[in-house]
């Protein structure tokens, strides 16, 4: 068993890579557990004390047994006082052991709760400073996995392993030592099958690290085929390729099955042999049989045999707990690695002290930006300069992929430019105090959360009253539709809500209305919505834009024409700026304008 860090490529990992992963996992675990290391150490110390105390009841048992047997053999009365004393020691030690064990578990469970909170808080603090462009769907998945699954996996390691793992290690050693103290021959009988078991298990675990990683990789391949098949099911069905798509899944599943079968088949024999060496009847046979012979020879007492046989029976349980805790440790290593990785996500540079802009004019000065880094970098903006005069509407136009959305998202500080500056009222964007109360945005994807519609609208102003939320919904032309829903504003947004894309857009507009930001970024993408919804969205957007500094990603001729300033973008550069009348003779603009008229509702060509 080993750390199973998922790898997306199907290449099986080598044993060196596995070792490196395991080491990295162990280091990551140490980092993650550092805030509660002291408490875990205390839990371990208490677990050791409790494990050593486990010997006392056996000592008492042997003494009581001897007292009873001696009396029976001599035909005399039992020394009731001595039996009573040992009985009290037995019960007292047992109770004390349980109490210490309970306190140790309590300490580690409280440490687990603290650590869960510390990790969540550190993640939230870190992610609140991360570039907004980072939050792609994959990264959202990573955050969800870390916050839910990984913290859960680490739970076992923090709350249980220090106590159960230590106990499973120390208790058998202490009991075994006592078995040898009773009589070395009985001690040997108690551990008689252990070396064979360890050898069988070592054999079956050989190469386990590599194989587990291979299994993880192959399973990922099967899941990928499955996801491919399910996500593309409509297209696959429409083109009658079900057999083919299904075959590719079937092939990877068969490949996995063959790999797994070949790996596990020989192991099953060895490990069942190993397990049978720890079977209760075998242990009893060896200990009681051998013990009876020793009793017969007068070397030990029956009570001694009873105690060491009971000790021998505890060994399988201890080994199982030990193996589970090793497994949990390796799983937690992979989880800790993911958490440490997330905590190291690059964040936006800290700017100087927050400043309040004197006006709401926006200036882009020589702004360049690329997505990704190194060889994968995609240059999206190249020296963009433009100015938004306060209280006016600037329309960004240009072909698909020209950089319009990138310009808009940089103003909302989804990321910082690689070169150049963006200022609001003379203050660089990173230094603007309360940026999101000054810059509102309604982008193509309305980004509604799975919370009530009321909370979705009030997201930017959580203190808003019901009346204010209703007023915003009315201004966004969506009030009636919300009120017609069975739960009205309490409806939780989600796949079953039955809201159309246009309605979701208008809810996002209501949210922006409520924030009441003086600078607005709008994406007038309405191609996916029905004409009635388009009309309502246009009206809502025009109301919203009034009196504000607006940067509008424009698609429709009448909207472009109505803008105070039009900025024509192509290939990440600004190639012309002016009013419609000034630009109408510009060849690039004229081309877009013609296309916009020819295809007023299409997304792909020219101005949409
Ligand atoms: N997340 C991303 N990762 C990598 N490249 C990206 C990403 N987003 C955009 N790009 C690239 O940056 C360039 C500009 O894209 P942008 O989305 O800003 O253009 P756009 O004019 O808004 O296009 P559209 O009208 O199609 O939305 C394009 O080449 C695009 O492929």
UniProtKB/TrEMBL annotation:
Residues 45-325 form the ABC transmembrane type-1 domain. GO terms for molecular function: ATP binding. This is ABC transporter ATP-binding protein. InterPro entries: AAA+_ATPase, ABC1_TM_dom, ABC1_TM_sf, ABC_transporter-like_ATP-bd, ABC_transporter-like_CS, P-loop_NTPase, Type_1_exporter. It is found in: Cell membrane. Signal peptide: none annotated. The keyword Membrane applies.
């Amino acid at each position: 068993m080993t750390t199973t860090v998922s790898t997306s490529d199907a290449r099986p990992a080598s044993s060196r890579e596995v070792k490196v992963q395991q080491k990295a996992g162990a280091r990551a675990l140490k980092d993650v557990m550092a805030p509660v290391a002291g408490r875990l150490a205390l839990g371990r110390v208490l677990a050791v004390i409790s494990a050593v105390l486990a010997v006392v009841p056996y000592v008492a048992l042997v003494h009581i047994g001897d007292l009873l047997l001696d009396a029976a053999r001599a035909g005399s009365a039992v020394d009731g006082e001595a039996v009573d004393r040992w009985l009290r020691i037995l019960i007292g030690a047992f109770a004390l052991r349980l109490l210490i064990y309970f306190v140790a578990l309590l300490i580690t469970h409280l440490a687990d709760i603290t650590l869960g909170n510390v990790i969540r808080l550190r993640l939230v603090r870190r992610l609140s400073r991360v570039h907004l462009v980072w939050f792609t769907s994959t990264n959202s998945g990573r955050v969800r996995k870390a916050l839910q699954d990984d913290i859960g996996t680490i739970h076992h390691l923090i709350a249980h392993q220090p106590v159960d793992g230590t106990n499973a290690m120390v208790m058998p050693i202490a009991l075994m030592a006592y078995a040898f103290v009773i009589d070395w021959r009985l001690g040997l009988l108690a551990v008689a099958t252990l070396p064979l078991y360890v050898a069988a298990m070592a054999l079956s675990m050989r190469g386990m690290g590599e194989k587990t990683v291979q299994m993880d990789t192959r399973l990922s391949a099967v899941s990928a085929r499955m996801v491919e098949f399910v996500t593309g099911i409509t297209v696959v069905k429409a083109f009658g390729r079900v057999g083919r798509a299904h075959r590719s899944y079937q092939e990877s599943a068969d490949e996995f099955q063959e790999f797994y079968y070949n790996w596990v088949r020989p192991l099953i024999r060895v490990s069942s042999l190993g397990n049978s060496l720890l079977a209760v009847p075998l242990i009893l046979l060896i200990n009681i049989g051998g013990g009876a012979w020793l009793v017969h020879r007068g070397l030990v007492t029956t009570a001694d045999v009873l105690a060491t046989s009971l000790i021998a029976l505890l060994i399988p349980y201890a080994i199982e707990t030990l193996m589970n805790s090793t497994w949990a440790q390796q799983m937690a290593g992979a989880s800790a690695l993911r958490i440490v990785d997330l905590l190291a996500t690059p964040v936006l540079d800290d700017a100087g002290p927050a400043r309040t802009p004197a006006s709401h004019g926006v200036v882009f000065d020589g702004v360049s930006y690329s997505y990704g880094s190194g060889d994968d970098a995609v240059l999206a903006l190249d020296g963009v300069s433009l100015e938004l005069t306060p209280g006016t509407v600037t329309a960004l136009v240009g072909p698909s992929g020209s950089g319009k959305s990138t310009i808009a998202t940089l103003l909302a500080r989804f990321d910082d430019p690689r070169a150049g500056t963006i200022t609001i009222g003379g203050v660089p964007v990173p230094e603007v105090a309360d940026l999101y109360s000054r810059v509102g945005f309604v982008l193509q994807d309305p980004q509604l959360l799975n919370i009530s519609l009321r909370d979705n609208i009030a997201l930017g102003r959580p203190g808003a009253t019901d009346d204010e939320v209703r007023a915003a919904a009315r201004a966004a032309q969506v009030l009636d539709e919300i009120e017609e829903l069975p739960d009205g504003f309490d409806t939780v947004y989600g796949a079953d809500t039955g809201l159309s894309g246009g309605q979701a857009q208008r809810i996002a507009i209501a949210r922006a209305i409520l924030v009441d930001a003086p600078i607005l970024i709008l994406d007038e993408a309405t191609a996916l919505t029905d004409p009635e919804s388009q009309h309502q969205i246009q009206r809502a957007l025009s109301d919203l834009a009034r009196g504000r500094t607006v940067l509008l990603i424009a698609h429709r001729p009448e909207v472009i024409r109505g803008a105070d300033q039009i900025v024509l973008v192509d290939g990440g550069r600004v190639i012309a700026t002016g009013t419609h009348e000034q630009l109408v003779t510009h060849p690039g603009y004229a081309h877009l304008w013609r296309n916009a008229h020819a295809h007023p509702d299409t997304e792909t060509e020219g101005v949409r």
